[in-house]
Task: structure prediction
Amino acid sequence: MISENRVSVELKGLRKVYGTAVALDNFSLDIAPGELVALLGPSGCGKTTALRILAGLDTDHEGQIIINGKDIASIPANKRNMGMVFQAYSLFPTMTVLENVAYGLRVRKVDREKRNKKAQELLDLVGLGEMGARLGHQLSGGQQQRVALARALAIQPNVLLLDEPLSALDAQVRTQLRDEIKRIQIEVGTTTLFVTHDQEEAMAIADRVGVMRHGVLEQCAPPQEVYLNPATVKVAKFVGAMNLMPVEILSSSSVSIYGQSVALREGGNVAGTMALVRPEQLSLALAKTQGRASATVFNLTFLGPLTRISVRMTGDARTLFVSMPSSAALEFVAGSLVDVRVLATSVLLDA
Ligand SMILES: Nc1ncnc2c1ncn2[C@@H]1O[C@H](COP(=O)(O)OP(=O)(O)O)[C@@H](O)[C@H]1O
Ligand SMILES: [Mg+2]
Result:
């Protein structure tokens, strides 16, 4: 239905400074043709800055932008053929939905019949085929973002840029539309940069997740790898929940965590005082000998399929979070005396 327009994107050594604030620092990222990369990081870490530079909306920066092997520094924003969707609803209020989607084609002087046909095709793609005659404000927030997506795709962009497009929507619509964007992106095959501060969203939608902190790209890898094998302590702490557990160094390759010996992650730190252990990498068992219990359960949070249990260690009163299937959590109540085991086969140390 929609012709594919697959390009590669290389951002090389981008640096952007506002006064004394460094918004992007030596930022390099390659996006393969047809790939969807999500930039993930807290507010202010430079996500929008990276996206604006790629779009040509900000030309006062260091570093290169290369599309299909060609430096596009001299190409102005309106000639870069990039489709954009932002957080705020941005439909033209006096135009119908169909006219909104056809807008970019009208600007490009595509004749009415052709552009309306194309716009209708795109509305069908985003599931709003029947809504073409309405005005923008007659749609829900989620529907408006679908129209914005259709409008961005109508011009058959080289690159699709999505800046927190789901942030203003409520949770259910957000998840639904997230899955839809993924489906549509696979269908049209447009190289896409998706910006979000929401971990789950980034993990769910992206081929690769680029984790950003303070203008720096800490790691860019498939979601599973970012989560299971974080490249840096910053990534480990930012993506997913993490316990900090005190260690004694046993050797250059192993540590003791509350008396249990665990290997150090290869390539990770060999010095440090705390191991990083995810809640699902800990298990609990009711203590057999009460006097020697290693911890006491003090809270259980039911999260549907999973239950999160917080325990307080007997020795140092440290609080740890343990996550397990809710069916397994039934045997624990607040006050249960438990033994804590580390299931992780290797750990990273906090620097
Ligand atoms: N126009 C601007 N003037 C001054 N500082 C800015 C401007 N735009 C962004 N910044 C600063 O640059 C940093 C990165 O901003 P931004 O890229 O918008 O982050 P994000 O999109 O990740 O929230 C922030 O510290 C922000 O305050
Ligand atoms: Mg932003």
Notes: The chain has two domains: 9-235, 241-349. The chain has a mean pLDDT of 93. The longest helix spans residues 171-188.
